[in-house]
Specification:
88 residues; alpha+beta; 5-stranded mixed sheet; 2 helices
Length: 88
């Protein structure tokens, strides 16, 4: 798909502030790598959604949406795996 723009929603930024500070750089690096390839080998589409995906970063999940028309990846949430799949 080529290079995409990465946008962080306020909810994702808020999620990052609640995560262990040692984990945050690793999570940001993984999320920013989606600019080059929004569909890496470990991505999974979320059930019941056409445009929402997730990648695993240790015990955390980066939940994102891909807009192929505008070549934009929107990071929606960064949550621990226990909390990632409940109500959003």
């Amino acid at each position: 798909m080529g290079s995409c723009e990465i946008r962080w929603k306020k909810s994702a930024e808020r999620d990052l502030r609640r995560i262990d500070p040692q984990q945050v750089p690793r999570i940001i690096k993984a999320a920013e790598s989606l600019a080059d390839n929004p569909f890496p080998a470990q991505h999974r589409r979320l059930r019941g959604s056409e445009r929402d995906y997730r990648i695993r970063v240790g015990d955390y999940r980066v939940i994102y949406r891909v807009d192929t028309e505008t070549k934009t990846v929107i990071i929606c949430h960064v949550r621990h795996r226990r909390e990632a799949y409940g109500k959003r």
